[in-house]
Amino acid sequence: MNRQLLLFCIFIGAFTLSKAQTQDLSEYFLRSLQTSEVYGNKIPKKNIKIKDLEDSRKSVWSAWKEANSNFQEIKLPAILPLSDSIAYEWPLVDEDPMPFYYGSKGKKPANGYPLFINIHGSGPKEKEWAATIAWSKIYADAPSLYYIPRIPNEKRYRWWFIPEQKAWEKLFRLAFLNDDINPNKMYFVGISEGGYGSQRLGAFYADYLAGAGPMAGGEPLVNTPPLNFRNTAFNLQTGEKDFMFDRNKITKQVKTIFDSLSNAYPGKFIHQVDLQKGKGHAIDYTLTTPWLIQHTRITNPREVSWVNFPMHDRYRTGFYNLAIKEHVNIDKTTDIDRALFEFAIDSTTNSIRMNANTLNKITNEKGAITKGKLLFYLDENLVDLNKKVTLYVNEKKVFSGKVKLDSKNIIESCALFYDSNRLYPASIEIDFSKL
């Protein structure tokens, strides 16, 4: 037996696998890392008892860590003080390589560094990159860790294009595997073009983040659905006199909407949106990261809103505990290019009520989802697994009974989310064609 198989097989608790099953798991994780495919592949299945959940998760996570260790890629470098950091580089798919600085400020906390992904503004890339590195050293947020990338190509000056998306997802995956990083304190921040990027990326990846802090930006809300920030802190700082591209007007709109959402859902839309008086495009940038670092990611919220919108023609396949198993009837080439999923879990009745609709990006008109499949993942943080669970979708009861606990769910949710806080033992499949 080779070293990898031996490491996978040493677990003799709840999740012991045969040699063949262990090989299947190894191949599955490697394939998921290479292709991002999660469903439809051969995978070990094993019923789990509630008392054995923790051991089962530890076994799967250890196998995932080993697979990542053996996966051929450039990893995160060792952490140096930010003042001593050097330029590193990651290759990107269908794009020039992306250089980055990676360094810390202050002594590492016991639960790991908060991680700021600080993306720069448009202009000559070396100059903008240098300015962003300088500001990162100034911000009063220590102890903290910074990942500061440089735009790969000035002709494609957007932080949310697909090659960059792949880089952020790699960064999340490696951060979750790194004991030096606090997985519940990661933030996107940026100035100007970096402000636009951090706002859009914040909405797209809100379930991975504790917060997002765009500065001197003001992304149109069609590109950054506010509902996605339901459990993620949001801070937008813009100059009162920043008239270009209506940045000040858009910021006023953002404030109005976030204030309204905060009133409608008390405690769920934590935000600070300010127009800095007398300021133009240049503002006080030092206010954002000290505010953000106070906030911690909510890993398994019982109330979620997810607008699944396309970013550079690409959709997310999961958000919090929801997973798209088969694409629903939305089309990125039309105005009906997004879907809205909202749910609330009632712990007293162990029931879930979900609304699921298509959404017109221009009119916000809702429509019916008539095809596709959604997995609703569950664990002991969301429901009482010892009791019957009832799920309603658009007021129709689609499931009622005790959910089955299976290793397959833990393995697939691990490959989908990369997140030790989201290793779900149970799932309910929603087939929209049958509703």
UniProtKB/TrEMBL annotation:
Keywords assigned by UniProt, alphabetized: Signal
Top-level division of the source organism's lineage: Bacteria
Signal peptide start-end: 1-20
Record bears the keyword Signal: yes
SUPFAM superfamilies noted in UniProt: alpha/beta-Hydrolases (SSF53474)
PANTHER family named in the record: BLL1128 PROTEIN (PTHR43037:SF1), UNNAMED PRODUCT-RELATED (PTHR43037)
Name of this protein: Esterase
Organism: Sphingobacterium hungaricum
